[in-house]
Design a protein that fits this description.
The chain contains 6 helices and 3 strands; from the N terminus they run H-H-H-E-H-H-E-E-H. It is an alpha+beta fold. It has one domain: Winged helix-like DNA-binding domain superfamily/Winged helix DNA-binding domain (Arc Repressor Mutant, subunit A). Strands 1-3-2 form a 3-stranded antiparallel sheet. Strand 2 and strand 3 form a beta hairpin.
Length: about 100
Amino acid sequence: MNPEPFLQLDRVIHEKGRLAIMSMLAASLELSFTELRNMLAMTDGNLTTHLRTLQEAGYVSVAKSYQDNRRLTTLSLTSPGRRAFAEYVSLLERIVRQTKPR
């Protein structure tokens, strides 16, 4: 087995919480902070910390607006975020294929 693909895994995405966030956002055009928090059963602080890391990497876009006089935070993957997630999934598929017996 070639260990090289493991060394190429994107550490920003690879963490369990961030992988869940990226997966949810990849399946949607955008989600509100509240929707994402509730679906992933995360605390506000935990989600905020993971989102900050993903935003600093350029993977997630955060937009703030108002809806019914209440603040609304919406999240979406950026183009580089979608590309990075697709590459991450492709790499995982390659790792899984190499572990299957021939």
